[in-house]
Amino acid sequence: EKWGTELGISALYTDCEEMLEKEKPDIVSICTYVNSHCELTTKCAQHGVKAILCEKPMALNMDEANRMVEECDKHGVKLAIGHQRRHAAQHQFTKRLIERGELGKLVALWGSSPSDLMDWGTHVVDMMIWYAGEVEWVMGQVDMTPIERHQRGYLNVTPVIGYLKFKNGAAGVIETDLQARGIFSNPRIQIRGEKGEVEVMMDGGLKYSSWDRLNWTTPNLVYQDAFHLEVEDLCNCIEQNKEPLDSGREGAKALEVLMAISESARLRGKVSLPLDQKMAPLDLIAQEGNLEKK
Tell me: the pLDDT tens digits for 192-225? Predict the structure, then answer.
């Protein structure tokens, strides 16, 4: 009611199916907590919408993520996941540096997440995959003492460290909960190649350098709202019948790595992708009694 009044919208609903049947929207934005993403996405796909923009993280587990993608494919619905930073100017510039070969073959990536793996971590992992390609295997370490059910619906432990081995040979590391420890409160990704390196802020600018010179270069970029660009891209995908830059398939890849990090901690070993485990590994750890519940 508050938003309806402020935005001049009279068609307000508390029931998704009633809204879909009466309004028949072309595009639906799903901004609820993650524990309802799968249900709402599948309902929207079944009611004939053209596109869905679903917030991150995509789902609670891989079973849900796969169902979301399959249902949207079945009904011809464009599915985008809220990894809008793919559209941001600093990340687009970094992607072009890599594609032009200015960094050479990628060797290592390090990403920092100020909060837990399913919150900021999903953005950082998504960008690392976008830069370096698909992940071959994962090793993860989590603090197995504190655990709590996040208000968004998932079990959460922190801090977490994930080691990723990409199919192109590059290695990646993601660390979470750095803000709580007063380190790198502005999340970033550092990328090193055989010819140079780049440090790009998740929100902000970047600097890059080649190994044959000592100075850093900071490009002048024109910044636009990444959320706006994400929606614009989704609209173009409907009109041009193409996949969104932050598609459901790409969102599922990021979620799979998050799940694999926890699965590695559960199994105490390396986990290869694609991930066999379709449920949330932290839930399984809790059920097995290896975590102390708060």
Answer: 999 999 999 999 999 999 988 778 999 999 999 9
**273 pLDDT exceeds 70?**
yes
What are the tokens at 258?
A: 């998050």
Task: Determine the Cα–Cα distance for residues 209 and 104; give it in Å rounded to an integer.
Answer: 12
pLDDT digits (tens, 9 = 90+) for 103-120: 999 999 999 998 889 999
Among residues 167, 168, 137, 169, the alpha carbon closest in space to that of 275 is found at 137
Phi-psi region of 14 (alpha: psi -120 to 50; beta: other; left: phi over 0): alpha
Q: Phi/psi at 111 (nearest 5 deg)? A: -125, 140
pTM higher than 0.70: yes
Residue 193 CA, distance from chain mean position: 23
Closest alpha carbon to 115 in 204, 36, 29, 202: 202
pLDDT of 293 strictly over 80? no
State the pLDDT at residue 147: 65
Q: Which amino acid is at 61?
A: N
